[in-house]
Design goal:
Length: 120
C-alpha cells in the first residue's frame, strides 16, 4: 500500500439525518489517494490534529465517488451512508491532487464515459 498523492484539507461532515451530528474536522486534515498491491485504490482522510484519526476511507469502486467543486474556494464532496463530506483542498496541491485522481479514475474505468463532473 502506498499514498500516491495527498492534500491538506479542511473537512466538514453534513449528516443526512438527525441521528448523526454534523462535524467540522481540524484545518489540519489530510486527504489521500492510496494504492494497494492488488490494483485497488481508495480515497482516505485523516484528522492530523487528532492522532491521525481516520475520518473516512472509501474504495474507488465507482467513478462518481468524488464530486468536484466549481472553484478552488468551493468544497468538493463525497458521500457516505450517513451524510456528505465536504472538502476544501489546499490551494498548493489542488490541481495536482485532481490530476492524480482523474488519472486513477480513467485507469480504473476506461470504458465508461466519465466527465468527473462538478457538483450541481
Amino acid at each position: 500500500m502506498s499514498v500516491i498523492h495527498y492534500s491538506a484539507s479542511r473537512i466538514q461532515f453534513k449528516s443526512n439525518n438527525r441521528s448523526t451530528d454534523d462535524h467540522n474536522y481540524s484545518d489540519r486534515s489530510l486527504v489521500e489517494i492510496r494504492a494497494y498491491d492488488n490494483n485497488e485504490f481508495s480515497l482516505r482522510a485523516l484528522d492530523i490534529n487528532n492522532n491521525n484519526r481516520k475520518i473516512f476511507n472509501f474504495p474507488l469502486k465507482r467513478p462518481d465517488l468524488y464530486r468536484f467543486g466549481n472553484a478552488i474556494n468551493e468544497p468538493h464532496e463525497t458521500d457516505s451512508n450517513t451524510g456528505t463530506y465536504r472538502l476544501w483542498l489546499n490551494g498548493e496541491s489542488y490541481d495536482k491532487f485532481h490530476e492524480t485522481y482523474r488519472t486513477v479514475i480513467e485507469m480504473l474505468f476506461p470504458n465508461q464515459s466519465i466527465a468527473l463532473k462538478r457538483k450541481h
